[in-house]
Design a protein that fits this description.
The complex is a heterodimer. Helix content of chain A is 44%, strand content 12%. Chain A has 7 helices and 4 strands. Chain B is globular and about 75 Å long. Classes of the chains: A alpha+beta, B alpha/beta. The complex binds flavin mononucleotide, iron/sulfur cluster (SF4) and FE2/S2 (inorganic) cluster (FES).
């Protein structure tokens, strides 16, 4: 069941569109924000308020890479792997992160603290290499900087 | 050429990296919302469209289509279907592109003002800003700016007592590059998978929810109130060439001073690369650049004195695209760069049509083999053939043709490097 908070936020989004279904992506993002990820229950809850079948909604969910249909860590680390970051040495950054967190891309640390994902160009190419941790942007990355950055996320 | 000092920079005049963006009060004190007021109180909608058409403003999202012309296709008058929609494309995901971010974070009220003018011209009832998820900082600033504009009566009912009403909402995307393609964006706004749609019908006639809709890039919209405020002649005079206005140009890669600058339209490539970006870092040589994002053809040394505008770069066999250049130096492997680009396109294909869905992974496979020293000479012909197969006319949207552009030009300008990988059975940069 949706919490009343989730329901209120979703209804506010529905009001922005001529057709209800248009708010379904926003609605999934809202549930994901509150619950960390979109479980089958989450999909079912959103489908109900959107007047869609869970299968219909899931076919939308699976299209978008930032809707997580699997559990993720408390902080999602997204490393830009697009061309300007590639030129500026993103491969070293990615390797450093994998070694430090002892996980591969797409994996979550055992303590559930970090999930590591690749992401397309973050629109920060003049300060490459770049990554986001949760909602925060980090730029001009070096291994030393990464140590300090990760410490900020408990 | 106008000197640096007295050069006008309408798009960035309010932007100061040392402070946050102007709030409504500051923006109005700097002359803000005057263009919108002028449009709504002393122009008919059709006159606004005419002015924008005459200004020569071309879409800054990459395709460079005449903005006023696009508006003129929207059904007007009493029989026109309603609600009509204006959508700002703030999805900015073209690799190497970071210009709209500057405007969104630096002067959100300028975007809102431009949107009011554009919406009025087509008599839209509702406007959406379709923002990519990663621009979290911009999201907060836009939310605040929209509510400030609502409180001041610049959005909502009877704006400037003109009888015109406009609602505006922020829509935050959930990822995928294809959402930036205008018809895919509309699918996504309707809460569907972001597959592009067949054209015709064009969105101007049947767009969001089947209603007349205009999709316009952030930078494009940030121009229109200035045209209203200062006039067509002023706007045309900002430029060094036939194409009006200023342009946000960016440079990334191993240059001394990467960044983004508002300069007269038609500023020569060399001036941007060497004057503003400071040229190559010490010890590195320039080899080539993609002039406007990942889906544009390489330019090389012989092109550096060309004017950066749509027509000139088009004549040189590339596209100005987004105007943000990606520079390749002599320590960067052209095959590796092509591979990175094609991996991006392959991953971001929406899967709708065969040349794109199946063609791109095939290209990635061949390029990986070459990069890993396992390529064969006939692979180069295969790659060229694939570029044609993915080219214009064979696919539903411009993603696959865009993917072909950097590849076909890399094969043309850096062929030796591809051959060296194949003959030497390794990447010369990696060993
Ligand atoms: C795959 C693909 C991605 C695109 N991404 C964007 C984008 O992120 N932002 C944008 O403004 N235009 C993007 N475009 C171009 C849009 O389809 C459309 O031409 C543009 O938003 C129109 O606005 P304009 O005329 O103001 O440029 C993209 C096109 C394609 C084919
Ligand atoms: S060209 Fe690619 S992205 Fe565009 S519709 Fe076809 S499969 Fe989808
Ligand atoms: S390529 Fe990484 S931020 Fe643009």
């Amino acid at each position: 069941m949706l919490t009343s908070e989730e329901r209120t936020e979703i209804e506010a989004e529905i009001a922005h569109y001529e057709q209800k279904q248009a708010a379904c992506i926003e609605a999934m993002k809202i549930v994901q924000k509150h619950r960390g990820w979109l479980s089958d229950d989450g999909i079912r809850d959103v489908a109900e308020i959107m007047e869609m079948t869970p299968a219909e909604l899931d076919s939308v969910a699976t299209f978008y890479n930032l809707l997580f249909r699997q559990p993720v860590g408390r902080h999602v680390v997204m490393v830009c792997d697009s061309v300007s970051c590639w030129i500026m040495g993103y491969e070293n950054i990615r390797q450093y992160l994998m070694d430090k967190l002892e996980i591969g891309m797409g994996e979550t640390t055992q303590d559930g603290r970090f999930t590591l994902l690749p992401i397309c160009c973050l629109g920060n190419c003049d300060r490459a290499p770049a990554m986001m941790v949760g909602e925060d942007l980090h730029q001009d990355l070096t291994p030393e900087k990464i140590d300090a950055i990760l410490e900020k996320y408990a | 050429m106008p000197s640096e000092k007295n050069m006008e920079r309408p798009l960035t005049k309010n932007i100061d990296p040392d402070r946050g963006p102007l709030d409504l009060k500051g923006y109005v004190a700097a002359g803000g919302y005057e263009g919108a007021r002028k449009a709504l109180t002393s122009h008919q909608p059709g006159d606004v469209t005419e002015l924008v058409k005459n200004s020569g403003l071309k879409g800054r999202g990459g395709a460079g289509f005449s903005t006023g012309m696009k508006w003129s296709f929207v059904p007007m008058g009493e029989d026109a279907p309603h609600p009509k929609y204006l959508v700002c494309n703030a999805d900015e995901m073209e690799p190497g592109t970071f210009k709209d971010r500057l405007l969104l974070e630096g002067d959100p009220h300028s975007l809102i003002e431009g949107m009011i003018v554009a919406a009025y011209a087509i008599q839209a009832d509702v406007a959406y800003i379709f923002l990519r998820w990663g621009y979290t900082h911009a999201a907060g600033l836009l939310r605040r700016a929209i509510s400030e504009a609502e409180e001041a009566g610049y959005l909502g009912k009877n704006i400037f007592s003109s009888g015109y009403n406009l609602e505006m909402y922020l829509h935050i995307s959930a990822g995928r590059y294809i959402c930036g393609e205008e018809t895919a964006l509309l699918s996504s706004l309707e809460g569907k998978r972001a597959n592009p749609r067949a054209k015709p019908p064009f969105p101007q006639v049947s767009g969001l929810f089947g209603k007349p809709t205009i999709v316009q890039n952030v930078e494009t919209l940030c121009n229109v109130h200035h045209i209203l405020n200062h006039g067509v002649d002023w706007y045309k005079n900002l430029s060094l060439t036939e194409e009006g206005g200023t342009k946000l140009y960016g440079v990334s890669g191993k240059v001394k001073n990467p960044g983004c600058w508002e300069l007269p339209m038609g500023t020569p490539v060399r001036e941007i690369l060497e004057g503003h970006a400071g040229g190559m870092r010490d010890g590195l040589q320039f080899r080539g650049l993609l002039p406007g994002g990942a889906s544009t053809d390489f330019l090389v040394e012989e092109h550096l004195d060309l004017a950066m505008d749509y027509a000139t770069i088009g004549k040189a066999g590339s596209r100005m695209g987004t105007g943000t250049m990606i520079v390749m130096d002599d320590q960067t492997c052209p095959v590796g760069m092509a591979l990175n680009l094609q991996q991006f396109f392959a991953q971001e294909s929406c899967g709708w049509c065969t040349p794109c869905r199946d063609g791109l992974p095939h290209v990635v496979k061949i390029l990986s083999a070459i990069e890993n020293g396992e390529g064969r000479m006939e692979d180069l012909d295969k790659l060229s053939a694939m570029c044609k197969y993915m080219g214009p006319g064979n696919t539903f949207c411009a993603l696959a043709p865009g993917a072909a552009e950097p590849l076909q030009s890399a094969l043309k300008y850096f062929r030796e490097d591809f051959e060296n990988h194949i003959q030497g059975k390794k990447c010369p940069w990696r060993n």
